[in-house]
Amino acid sequence: MSCYWRAPREKTEVMLILSTAETTPAQRVAAIIEAIEQYRIADCDRLVAEAREGLGPCVLVREVFGPVLREAGDRWEQGRFSVAQEHMLSNAVRRQLTYSLDEFNRLAPAEPCVAYTTLSGERHEMGSLMLAVLGASFGVRAMYLGPDLPVVEVGRFCNHVPVVAIAISIVTNPDVIDAADQLCALREALPVTTRIWLGGQAAGRLPTGQLPWDCTVITDIADFELRVTALRKQGP
Description:
- By secondary structure, the chain is of the alpha/beta class.
- The chain has 2 domains: about 15-105, Methyltransferase, Methionine Synthase (B12-binding Domains), Chain A, domain 1; about 110-235, Cobalamin-binding domain (Rossmann fold, 3-Layer(aba) Sandwich).
- It is built from 8 helices and 7 strands.
- The strands form 2 sheets. The protein has a 5-stranded parallel sheet. The chain has a two-stranded antiparallel sheet with strand order 1-2.
- It is globular.
- The termini are far apart.
C-alpha cells in the first residue's frame, strides 16, 4: 500500500493518506465521512473532487456519492451529525455534480433531452441531480431544473422546451407531499408526447392505480441506464 504524509495542522495530528491510485470507493466514502466528522471542510471538498476526477460517473454515483450521502443522512437522523455537517457534504457533492453535468452536456447533442426535478414539497435534490449527470454521461442531454418545483412550472417549461421525458425523484413519503395528485396534475400540464419517469426510494410506495398514464417507475440505476441508452440510440 503506497501512501504519503501530509504535514499536520497541529503537532499532535498526523494523517496518513492513501494514494488516489489505490483508493477503493469504500475507502473514499470512509475518508469523506471522517473529514465531515472533524469539520475539515477543505479536506471534504478535496476528497469529493478527487472522487469525481478519478472515477467514472456510474461508479461515482453508485459507490461513492450515493453511499456517502446516505451515511451522512443516517448519522443526522441518529443525532451524530449536525445540520451544518450534512450541508458541508451536500454542498461539496453538489458542486462536483454540477461541474460534471456541464461537462457532459457540452458533449451531448441538443436532442433527445430529459428534464430532472422534484415535486413541490420535495426538497431532496441529490438523487435527481445524480440521475441528470448519469443521463448526460450516456449522451442524452439533461436539463436539471432544481428541486421543489410546482407542477405548473414544470408544465410551462416542458411546453416551451422539447423534452422526451421529465424525471421526478421522490424521497419523501408520497402522502406527505400529495405525490399522486401532483403527478396527475402534471400529466395534464405536460405535452402528450412527454413521458413521466419516477425514481427515488419512495417512488415505489405509490400504488400503480394512482399513477397517471405514461408514468413509469424506474426500479434502479440499471433500469435508468437502459432507458437513456435507448433514447440515445433513437436519436432526435
